[in-house]
Amino acid sequence: MNISILGAGAMGSLFGGLLAESGQQVTLLDINDAHLEAIRRQGLRLETDSGDRRIGGLTACRPEQVTGQPDLLLVFTKAQHTDHALRGIAGHIGEHSLVLTLQNGLGNAEALCRHVAPERVMIGMTTWPADMAGPGHVRSHGQGVVRLMSLDAVERQGSNQVAAVLEAAGLQCAVDPQVWTSIWEKVAFNAALNSLCAVTGCTVGQLDAAPEGVALARAIVLEVLSVAQSVGVATDAQRCLDSVAYAIAHHRTHKPSMLQDVLAGRPTEIGAINGEVLARARQAGIAVPHTETLLGLLRLIEAWAATGGGHE
Hints:
By secondary structure, the protein is of the alpha/beta class. Helices cover about 45% and strands about 15% of the residues. The chain starts with a strand and ends in a 6-residue tail after the last helix. One of its GO terms (biological process) is pantothenate biosynthetic process. It catalyses: (R)-pantoate + NADP(+) = 2-dehydropantoate + NADPH + H(+).
């Protein structure tokens, strides 16, 4: 399969490396020139539970340099960059190209449908961990899954083919008609841990330094899942709370991407997570005070960083 990955950060590079290693033809598209150059010179260094190796055969280029049209476009850009990124590769998306979003947050499907016919859009989520260790170097330890389906929930040959390709790469992928449940539960998980860590500067494990940290995380999870229920998505609150508790207990030194963005003075994905939850909550007449407060605090931090300030 000819696969392009739009957004070759940690997650995009992990998926691209594993897909290339399994025999697929992969193009990584990104604007991080140092990362792209390192991959072109030495291949992608990938550290996983399967070992530390370099994967060659990857095409790595900036979006404006790409040629041809892929069978599959896998979108891993941050949610706030999706529209701009897709406009930049409009000629790369063929009339038969399938497009899959595994991005964080809500609103990603709507963004894709502004550029691609809805029947060619697939939505999904993944729990695979990945971190950038340096240019051309990605680490991923632990296991994860991928769940996907066509946006219109029609069972299509393309969805099954894409799932089979990802499964063959070791990514534990399945077509899941209940994928919206997985997406909303991940939004709840991220709204709790990412936003709390980004505001406080805590690692995930440091959130239990005071009982209030754990209580806040639980409250946010329940708020988000109440919004999911209001739009007709069934979720398992205890499963999501257990996932949060496990992360606090076992991922103690992890700095979520939102905290990393704050520390680097970059805009965060708070709009696609807490912001989208708040928008849907207001439509449903549901109060989500903790989720809303953290959104406001992150917006303030972003605004302060944009004026040249910092976050200690």
